[in-house]
What does this fold into?
Amino acid sequence: MAYQPPKQVIVLPQTQQLKACTTIIRDKNTQRADFIFYSDRIIRILVEEGLNHLPVVEKTVVTPTGKEFHGIDFQGRICGVSIMRAGESMEQGLRDVCRSVRIGKILIQRDEETALPKLYYAKFPPDIASRFCLLLDPMLATGGSAIKAIETLIDYGVAEERILFLNLISCPEGIAAVVAKFPAMKIVTAEIDAGLDEKLYIDPGLGDFGCRYFGTD
Ligand code: URA
It folds into this structure.
């Protein structure tokens, strides 16, 4: 039976446009300029979908015809948090949609001795605890970095249910690890792949997102 993600996971509508974009970024022959362009398109859709899961309040305005329009207004302030380095690729997509958005950063790397994810750097707006956080990392693989990042946000006072984790490609292992620890948090993902390979890359995935986006080895 096909994999059914837990209820905390929102998968983007699988439109032909999205599928064509993910096909391009997964292709090993795609050149960097196209990789960036089509990743940015997907990121934009992810951010828009993520924002749909934030609270709103009713708001009535008067249009130039003098009539009332009963609409809604955004409620609460937000903050982007990118997991360095690959998550930084998603910052512009958030800025394009949320003017002057604050963006915090987290650097997590594997500890040489323990092989566990270790926090090396975190910088957030001082009032982060009162904001909704959009956590940015393009690939949800084992979930190790994401879990460390979420623990860090919680240490800074952010409530679990105020965190939305946005990624382009995820897999059942990473989803299970994150959801088991943080059941009140939501994950917004463009596609869910089959699993992890022996090198802990997502299978079929797209290789190393950060290297392909930033043009490094
Ligand atoms: N990070 C990546 O860039 N790719 C993967 O497949 C897994 C983690």
Summary: The mean pLDDT is 97. Residues 9-214 form a domain with the Rossmann fold fold (CATH 3.40.50.2020). The first strand starts at residue 9 and ends at 11.
